[in-house]
Amino acid sequence: MNSVPKFLQYSKTHEWVRRDEDILTVGITDHAQTMLGDLVYVELPEPESNLESGQECAVVESVKAAADVYSPVSGEVVEINEALFETPQLINDDPYGKGWLFRVRPYENETAHLLNSEQYSKQVASEAH
Amino acid sequence: MNKKTTLYLSHLAANAKMIDFAGWEMPLHYGSQVQEHHYVRQDAGVFDVSHMTVVDVTGQEAAVYLRYLLANNVDRLASGKAFYTCMLNNQGGIVDDLIVYQISDNFYRLVVNSATRDKDWVWLNEHAKKYSLTLTERTDFAILAIQGPQVRNKLSALFNAADLQAILDLKRFHAVTIGPLFVARTGYTGEEGFEIILPAEAATALWEKIIAAKIHPCGLGARDTLRLEAGLNLYGADMDETVTPLESNLSWTIAWEPKERDFIGRQALEKQQQSGVQHCLVGLILLEQGVLRNHQKVIVEGVGEGEITSGSFSPTLNKGIALARVPAAIGTECWVEIRGKQHRAKVIKPPFVRQGKNDTVAIA
Fold first, then answer.
1. Domains of chain A: residue spans and CATH
2. In this predicted structure, what is the pLDDT of residue B1?
3. What is the rounded CA–CA span in Å between residue B321 and residue B347?
4. Which of A98, B59, B193, B297 is packed most tightly, with the most Cβ within 10 A?
5. Contact between B313 and A41 using a beta-carbon 8 Å cutoff
6. Fold type of domain B278-362
7. Quick check: B357 pLDDT over 90?
8. Do B221 and A37 touch (CB under 8 A)?
9. Which of A59, A63, A85 sits opposite B313 (nearest CB)?
10. Domain ranges across chain B
11. What confidence category does residue B358 fall into, taking pLDDT thresholds of 50, 70 and 90?
């Protein structure tokens, strides 16, 4: 069973969001990395670029497939996880920790459209059927 | 309802992630596709490939039939010897690729793809009508492929001394029958190894002995990256009925001699050989980080365009690699379009990797 930590918020497209004061950290969920398998390549948004909520902003590629990552919120990219360029496998090994993708300063503090862990778990379960 | 091989429960017990492959429930990986790839390049791995179709051809005119059916010539075979060949249509297009073993006089064994099983069976039967022979599909068999540089060292745990010697003495593309086992020194990974065809009811016991001998279970995911690194074509991706062996880097599988041997597709191939081939199948290595994918566009400046037929990521080279069908006049480099952007790639003659080593040869 894939982990879905309670302290994070989620998007329907399998990104997770963690709030640290006014900065949001974004990654892909354990479920998403499991579905993709061994990751071998990532493209991340440009630092200081502006993202719209729902915009395609990164690509994660496994041996098997390429997947778009959608920005869960609107905001400015303040940091990207450069370690992933060398070691994309960090996303498989630690999707909620060392495998984070980028950090955003959101334009608004509005993350109400995101799912909580329970809602996201339900969505994953329903996709399996 | 998908078909299951006799090892289905063994795969589940080994934590396999199962996928639908041509109507079969098959293991994609047992945890990490990349790790399994490395096992086969550096150590030893076992694949369940029982989904593949085995057809025995027996009877007085078996050889005459195969001589006409296949682009390679079974006169080159002898008992215990095998080759790789294509089966062509009248236009020279590839109906399927297969391995043919001669087991004894008037007894041949074909191993064809599972995805093409139905049309192959029709094709084989249609052309068999004129001949005195019997075609038997061996759904009672399982097939295990054990592959990797350490396989030979690990076989002593599986066989007694006499049988082990018979197996270790096999030359490439030779096979030997050991009790209920048919053991061939063949494979689809570019590594040393064997493929074992055996009665399905004996497969689980052998699988367990193989795992106990520290030969790691490997899924179809690793099988695909291994065969791609080895420059081995995949039917349905790199070739199909619309292309000939000459356009698929498989000229070496055509037996042109003796000239008087007619085989299906021969006339079309000769015509194409004379007029010149417009497209060929080459290897590409992405010169930047990234992954190549099937159907990405290949641009050859001043020449034309082509397409990637099998693209992936090479765990051995740590680079994006692909087979691509391109204009025959391609040079040493080209562009590949990935998500709307062009990326530089080097053109090579496959394989990318042979026996665990980077073995790329630039195309002159």
1. 10-127 (2.40.50.100)
2. 82
3. 10
4. B193
5. yes
6. Elongation Factor Tu (Ef-tu); domain 3 (2.40.30)
7. no
8. yes
9. A63
10. 278-362
11. low
